[in-house]
Design a protein that fits this description.
Layout: E1 2-4, E2 8-11, H1 18-24, H2 27-33, H3 40-57, E3 61-66, E4 72-81, E5 99-106, H4 115-128, E6 135-141, H5 145-153, E7 157-162, E8 171-177
Antiparallel strand pairs: 1-2, 2-3, 3-4, 4-5, 6-8, 7-8
Helix pairs in contact: 1-3
Length: 178
Amino acid sequence: MRLETERLLLRIPEERDVDGYVEVYDAEVMRFLGSATVTREGVADGVKRMRRHWERHGIGLFSVVRKEDERLLGRVGFLLWHPVRWVNAMREELEGDLELEIGWTLGSDHWSRGYATEAAVACRDWALGELGWKRIVSLIARDNAASIRVAEKIGEIYERDVERPDIDFAIGLWSLGE
């Protein structure tokens, strides 16, 4: 599965992406993900989990590659979440009615260049169009103003706060659709 925009290629993560993701997950990025630092081994495990999500659910997080130089910029795409416990399908086997999250994580070197919005629009349109989803959500740290702007640009509105026991900062739930 691949999506393309004017400047970006979105593809299923591959093992060769690990070193690129190690660069993406710097301290600035990690503060919004609720983690400290990452190891190469941890990143490799994350890429495997992203691939399993795709295999199990037919949807997942894309590796975002800039066309002009084939540089990995980060990940944009989808996670399925349990709508009460707020755990995702990369961490647990989930069934039933799940929330589809569209999310974006780009390396801080690539912020403020429109890449997250460009990739998120392509993902949104694919999910609401070809895949037939009626609702998409985003879980965003309440102090992440840049991600909130991306959510607004793709048509999401603030819905409510969500508590997640695995992080110690406030999360807002943004939604688009039913």
